[in-house]
From TrEMBL:
Role noted for this protein: Part of the ABC transporter complex UgpBAEC involved in sn-glycerol-3-phosphate (G3P) import. Probably responsible for the translocation of the substrate across the membrane.
Annotated localization: Cell inner membrane; Cell membrane
Pfam families: BPD_transp_1
Lineage of the organism: Bacteria, Pseudomonadati, Pseudomonadota, Alphaproteobacteria, Rhodobacterales
Protein name: sn-glycerol-3-phosphate transport system permease protein UgpA
Record-linked SUPFAM superfamilies: MetI-like
GO biological process: transmembrane transport
PANTHER family per UniProt: BLL4140 PROTEIN, SN-GLYCEROL-3-PHOSPHATE TRANSPORT SYSTEM PERMEASE PROTEIN UGPA
Membrane-spanning ranges: 12-30, 71-92, 104-126, 203-225, 264-285
């Protein structure tokens, strides 16, 4: 059925705000980054020189940038996997609660309202090696916990903070997906003698495939971009650049070191990586998704 409008300009008027937002906050900055990536500028913008692809060659040959690629890959995979896995477990358990289900779900959603920087500072205080509440049990177990000096521990801390921040978002969608599954299918499998574990992997999880695929795309973008505030608040990319992701290196080179051309080239490369990852997910992973 085709939608009809009383005036032919009404559809354009309705989409105009979204188009304006996309133009101002995405296409225009992307165009500016692409333009600056082929230039060499002084920090004050008083002198500009066209250098072509020299910025890209210098970035791709920089060991520090290659280190950021490895850090980002590990951080993104770990954050997406942990946040989705924990959210799925919590959503499944929430469906079993008979009394107080709404209150429990409300408590689970609250952490998503916390700003990224606040979430990072919260975890930093909890795991502070000197006075952190949750750092004390680690010291009692004989673990030399100090994420401010140990790169692996710092990575574990930012992964934990980023995953905790995103669990609520994933939980909300998994709960909605579970509620959309017909109870008759699960009851029929139970009558046939299938246990809880088998019912989950053969019925529930396959029917959650569309939700899982959507969250996979969202969590990938989240780990690549929206975790900047957490890393900035908790580690600042350290120690020894062990938590310096690609988006944080763009900020560090562009706003701290004032290497505008290099920072713009890095942002263009990051944009290409995100587009390629999203296209790969839709091209190959979505084939395994079955929509009911």
């Amino acid at each position: 059925m085709r939608a009809t409008f009383p005036h032919r300009f009404l559809p354009y008027l309705l989409v105009a705000p979204q188009l304006a937002i996309s133009l101002i906050f995405f296409y225009w900055p992307a165009g500016q980054a692409l333009h600056q990536s082929v230039l060499r500028e002084d920090p004050f913008g008083l002198k500009t020189q066209f250098v072509g692809l020299a910025n890209f060659r210098r970035v791709l040959g920089d060991p520090a940038y290659l280190n950021s690629v490895q850090v980002t890959a590990f951080f993104s995979v770990a954050t997406a996997f942990l946040s989705m896995a924990i959210a799925l477990v919590l959503a499944v358990q929430a469906e079993k609660i008979l009394r107080g289900k709404g209150f429990y779900r409300t408590l689970m959603i609250w952490p998503y309202a916390v700003a990224a920087a606040i979430a990072g500072m919260l975890w930093l205080f909890l795991f502070n090696p000197s006075f952190g509440t949750l750092a004390y049990p680690l010291r009692q177990m004989g673990i030399a916990w100090d994420p401010l000096l140990n790169g692996n521990q710092a990575m574990a801390l930012v992964i934990g903070a980023a995953s905790w921040k995103q669990i609520s978002y994933n939980f909300l969608f998994f709960v909605a997906g579970l509620q959309a599954i017909p109870k008759s299918l699960i009851e029929a499998a139970a009558i046939d003698g299938a246990g809880r574990t088998r019912r989950f992997w053969t019925i529930v999880f396959p029917l959650l495939a569309p939700t899982t695929f959507f969250l996979l795309v969202v969590n990938t973008v989240y780990a690549l971009f929206d975790t900047f505030g957490i890393i900035h608040a908790v580690t600042g990319g350290g120690p020894g650049k062990s938590t310096e992701t690609l988006v944080y290196k763009v900020y560090n080179d562009g706003f701290v070191n004032l290497q505008l051309g290099s920072s713009a080239a890095q942002s263009v490369i990051l944009m290409v990586i995100v587009i390629a990852l999203t296209a790969f997910q839709f091209r190959y992973i979505e084939r395994k998704v079955h929509y009911g």
